[in-house]
């Protein structure tokens, strides 16, 4: 089911955004981020997030477009229960390159990066949550979906799911989101990358 972005509820609404039924454009505010404690010793819950309430057992997909050029520029899809339990996954610029990045947070954050493809100015993220397990995949074309991460994630009655963007080191990143859908959890085998 395609999601009307206008149904979303903002956490840290950016000063500049354009929301329509099928498109969302965010311009990030100064020093925005989501992180909890690990390695850096700080907690930040200031990133931009437009959440749609959904029940357990879903597959969410979104298209992300932007020019990620500065350290920690990031955008993607977030699944959130509360400030201590959430996942953000998408692109993040680090060490001079754009990577596919996932942060899983359950009290404390972890961070993993991968690069199954390098063209990250226009791509898709897909998250499936089923039976306490989260499957995260990315795609360049919406057809072939390499696996980024399989992780446990707490079971809850409802989740907030939707686009997120942050710029911990600056402001002014423009990110465009489209083709946002939330459907029943896919029953495809883990190694079926379609």
Automatic annotation (TrEMBL):
Q: Which InterPro entries match?
A: ConA-like_dom_sf, DUF1349, UCP022704
| UniProt xrefs under Gene3D superfamilies | 2.60.120.200
Please give the name of this protein.
Regulation of enolase protein 1, concanavalin A-like superfamily
Q: Which organism is it from?
A: Phytopseudomonas punonensis
């Amino acid at each position: 089911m395609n999601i009307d972005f206008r149904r979303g509820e903002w956490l840290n609404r950016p000063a500049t955004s354009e929301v329509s039924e099928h498109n969302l454009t965010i311009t990030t505010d100064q020093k925005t981020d989501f992180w909890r404690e690990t390695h850096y010793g700080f907690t930040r819950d200031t990133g931009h997030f437009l959440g749609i309430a959904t029940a357990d057992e879903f597959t969410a997909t979104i298209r992300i477009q932007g020019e990620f050029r500065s350290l920690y520029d990031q955008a993607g899809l977030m699944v959130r229960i509360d400030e201590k339990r959430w996942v953000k996954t998408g692109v993040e610029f680090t060490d001079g390159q754009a990577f596919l990045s996932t942060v899983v947070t359950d009290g404390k954050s972890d961070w993993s990066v991968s690069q199954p493809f390098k063209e990250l100015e226009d791509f898709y993220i897909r998250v499936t949550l089923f039976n306490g397990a989260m499957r995260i995949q990315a795609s360049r074309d919406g057809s072939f979906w390499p696996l980024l991460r399989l992780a446990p994630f707490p079971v809850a009655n409802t989740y907030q799911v939707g686009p997120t963007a942050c710029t911990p080191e600056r402001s002014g990143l423009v990110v465009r989101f489209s083709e946002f859908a939330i459907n029943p959890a896919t029953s495809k085998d883990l190694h079926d990358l379609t």
